[in-house]
Design brief:
By secondary structure, the protein is an alpha+beta fold. It contains 14 helices and 20 strands. A six-stranded mixed sheet has the order 3-2-1-4-6-5, sandwiched between helices. β12 and β13 form a beta hairpin. The longest helix is centred in the middle third of the chain and has 30 residues. The protein is elongated and about 90 Å long. One of its GO terms (molecular function) is tRNA(Ile)-lysidine synthase activity.
């Protein structure tokens, strides 16, 4: 038995040390070589070490007839090891990339299964890491992409962990032979129409034939790039700290940044800071589409520029950058009369409004700006609503959503705007909570 094979359990345990206090360890078990070895290693360690509860999850994609036998194989392996198995059937959406669609369906199942303080482990190894870096290099990825697969990241309410990233496929194969393990072979892994399979079967053998340490060296480069990405993330946090100071319209609940603080950075630091800020909010654009940021940044001061991204829009207004998605991109619908003014009024696609203090006499109605509205102010007489909104530098995208309180044709109040949202003599104020849902995270 090879010494590296003997050392595998201790190396795995060392890699998993930060998660020994997790509630559960769940293995993503495809039935293939990598996950079979990972499952066997953990089941063996559990006999001598105090580990969290072990279980496995098998995702059945239903993409090929041969795969119909895999759940039974996985069940037999788990039964022999005394590990419970959850089998999840998913539907893969047809599209341009079957690989990506299957991966999305698989990880959606993993996310649903991962609870608070759970760890879900996958079996990617060092060779996979090398192939990932090369694949992304050929697609023109930046530092973040070239840093490869992270050893751990958030997943659902817990964490995704890849504890085999410093272990080669050859070592896993040797362990499987030494322990007489059996696994399934996915026929699609031989299909060289898939880019990763082409790299694995056509390109990597040529590289390792000339440079035997190619897998190890490439994986090491990915580690260096992860460190570089970490430094870029730290720089982004420094640059975003000043830009993230609260602005005047924090009640909107929208993610926002001070525009001048971002625009004052070098071009590279602008892209770095914005990438860091946008990453949890939307799929990031490729290099060619960053021209949208330049157009937004360089637009005139009287403009209201918009940069449309995959999962929402970046707006520049009132001296800030604003991230809008979901209901903020839909036109709100008037809900009708407000009869029970002692209760909050829910507005379709626009949160809710409520009074503090006394409530004005009715009948009352919430409407939205159409243009031409006039409001009477005790100290200024009748004033155009447009002018009043301009004076307060209300962002353009907020103006069409601001709840306006009417009694008949009389505009009584504009929610949330000091001086316009209340009647001091009657002792009431109109409050607007723009959304009951979480803003931002996709």
């Amino acid at each position: 038995m090879d010494q590296s094979t003997i050392d595998l359990p201790s190396r795995l345990l060392r890699n998993l040390k930060p998660w020994l206090d997790a509630a559960n360890w769940r293995i993503a078990f495809s039935g293939g070589l990598d996950s079979t070895v990972l499952l066997h290693l953990l089941a063996t360690l559990a006999k001598s070490e105090s580990l969290p509860a072990l279980s496995a999850i098998h995702v059945h994609h239903g993409l090929q007839a041969v795969a119909d036998a895999w759940p039974a194989h996985c069940q037999a392996v788990c039964d022999a090891l005394g590990i419970s198995l959850q089998i999840v059937h998913v539907t893969v959406q047809q599209g341009a990339s079957l690989e990506r669609a299957a991966r999305d369906a698989r990880y959606a199942a993993f996310t649903s299964a991962t609870r608070i303080n759970d760890v879900l482990m996958t079996g990617q190894h060092r060779d996979d890491q090398a192939e990932t870096l090369l694949f992304r290099l050929l697609r023109g990825a930046g530092v973040r992409g070239l840093s490869g697969m992270p050893a751990q990241r958030a997943l659902g309410q817990g964490s995704l962990v890849r504890p085999l990233l410093d272990i080669s496929r050859a070592e896993l194969e040797a362990y499987a032979r030494d322990h007489d393990l059996r696994w399934v072979e996915d026929p699609s892994n031989q299909n060289r129409q898939f880019s990763r399979n082409y790299l694995r079967h056509q390109v990597m053998p040529l590289l390792t034939g000339r440079w035997p340490q190619a897998h190890a060296s490439t994986a090491r480069s990915a580690a260096h790039l992860r460190e570089a990405q970490g430094l870029l993330d730290e720089l982004a946090q420094i640059d975003l700290a000043q830009a993230s100071l609260p602005g005047e319209f924090e009640w909107s609940g929208l993610p926002s940044l001070d525009f001048a603080a971002i625009a004052g950075l070098s071009d590279a630091r602008q892209r770095n800071a914005l990438s860091h800020w946008l990453e949890p909010l939307t799929r990031l654009p490729d290099t060619d589409h960053w021209s949208g940021w330049v157009d937004l940044r360089d637009a005139g001061n009287d403009a209201a520029p918009v940069w449309r991204l995959a999962d929402g829009e970046l707006h520049r207004s009132a001296g800030r950058l604003w991230w809008l998605n979901g209901h903020w991109l839909r036109t709100p619908v008037v809900s009708g009369d407000w009869h029970e003014t002692s209760l909050a009024l829910r507005l379709p696609d626009n949160g809710r409004v409520m009074f503090s203090g006394q409530t004005p006499a009715g009948p009352l109605q919430i409407r939205y700006r159409q243009g031409g509205e006039v409001m009477h102010l005790a100290d200024r007489g009748h004033r155009d609503l447009k002018r009043l909104l301009n004076e307060r530098a209300v962002p353009a995208f907020v103006r069409g959503r601001l709840p306006l309180l009417f009694r008949g044709e009389e505009l009584l109040a504009v929610a949330n705007l000091p001086g316009l949202d209340s009647n001091a003599l009657e002792g009431w104020r109109l409050h607007w909570q723009p959304s009951d849902e979480d803003q931002g995270l996709r």
